[in-house]
User: Which sequence fits this backbone?
């Protein structure tokens, strides 16, 4: 059988040699060079290839090249095709590092120093103590936990918001719609690390910003569709929010002329918070291909009903 690779973000030249070294004898194809579509039983994908998955009648397993799966539109999968997402220590490390860097940049007011430099002003300020700078993480999954631990180790008070209640967690957790208010109360920085589902789409909106203290900052590393973009611009322009670090956008690449490009209090990064690392992720991928072919439970299988 054959493994198909397709990604608009990831380089097959990084992935296929590593996978091939661990799976001698396996055939790999890079879309659109699919060979015989009947031979493809496994696909390693960031998004669905043009034409969808129905073009591969013997496909049984899709391994997402990302931790998120919304971009694969799992609800449209042909019956019988299973899906797993990537859980990778390299990815978690990079996400923790990105979020720590973003929080420190806001906390140490680097934006204000950069603006003062452009004006030629010596704008001496001392930051608030870290203990007085609470950080909230929406989503305490694999990545949220890695971020939480890194921020706690750096001395920030951290709390999280999840869908279901937790008996044991590295930081205090508020759960469900009733927990959202107490979670947001008093936060200096809000990090979104939710998966994109019908319940979380558009959650970063005017209504939520109004529940944060004036001058809080937003860090969105989840998905672009979590954010109602005009609401953020209004909140920044009115001073309700002080600044935003955005890694993900409704349209990627962010279109030329989009107001975020030139906004003085927005930092745009091009969906680079945490990318999958072929070196560290190859072992999970290989193991899942084996499990899928043998009909065994997959590692990190996605529940299509829950969407993450
Ligand atoms: P997980 O599936 O491990 O965790 C998801 C977390 O979100 C869980 O804590 C879950 O709650 C919570 N959650 C889901 N739905 C809701 C809801 N309706 N209300 C409250 N909480 C909710 O995901 P990961 O940590 O691995 O990844 C999170 C997301 O990060 C990905 O889906 C992707 O969108 C994004 N990402 C972005 C990257 C980037 O480079 N910018 C890179 C990788 C991922 P519960 O614990 O109760 O299930
Ligand atoms: C992912 C991502 O989901 O890169 O892994 O966003």
Assistant:
């Amino acid at each position: 059988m054959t493994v198909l690779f397709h990604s608009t973000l990831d380089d097959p030249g990084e992935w296929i040699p590593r996978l091939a070294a661990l799976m001698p004898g396996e055939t790999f194809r890079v879309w659109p060079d699919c060979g015989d579509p009947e031979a493809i039983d496994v696909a390693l994908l960031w998004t669905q290839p043009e034409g969808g998955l129905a073009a591969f009648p013997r496909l049984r397993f899709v391994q997402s090249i990302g931790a998120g799966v919304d971009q694969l539109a799992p609800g449209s999968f042909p019956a019988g095709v299973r899906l797993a997402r990537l859980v990778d220590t390299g990815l978690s490390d990079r996400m923790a590092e990105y979020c720590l860097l973003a929080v420190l940049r806001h906390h140490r007011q680097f934006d204000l120093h950069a603006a003062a430099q452009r004006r030629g002003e010596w704008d001496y300020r001392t930051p608030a103590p870290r203990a007085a700078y609470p950080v909230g993480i929406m989503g305490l999954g694999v990545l949220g936990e890695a971020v939480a631990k890194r921020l706690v180790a750096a001395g920030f008070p951290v709390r999280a918001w999840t869908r279901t209640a937790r008996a044991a967690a590295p930081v205090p957790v508020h759960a469900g719609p009733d927990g959202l208010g107490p979670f947001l109360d008093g936060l200096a920085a809000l990090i979104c690390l939710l998966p994109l589902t019908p319940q979380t789409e558009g959650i970063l909106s005017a209504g939520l910003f109004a529940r944060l203290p004036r001058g809080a900052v937003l860090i969105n590393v989840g998905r672009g569709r979590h954010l109602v973009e005009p609401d953020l611009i209004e909140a920044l322009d009115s001073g309700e929010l002080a600044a935003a670090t955005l890694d993900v956008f409704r349209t990627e690449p962010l279109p030329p002329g989009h107001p975020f490009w030139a906004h003085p209090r927005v930092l745009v990064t091009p969906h680079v918070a945490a990318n999958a690392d072929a070196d560290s992720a190859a072992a999970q991928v290989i193991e899942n291909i084996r499990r899928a072919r043998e009909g065994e439970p997959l590692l990190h299988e996605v529940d299509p009903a829950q969407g993450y």
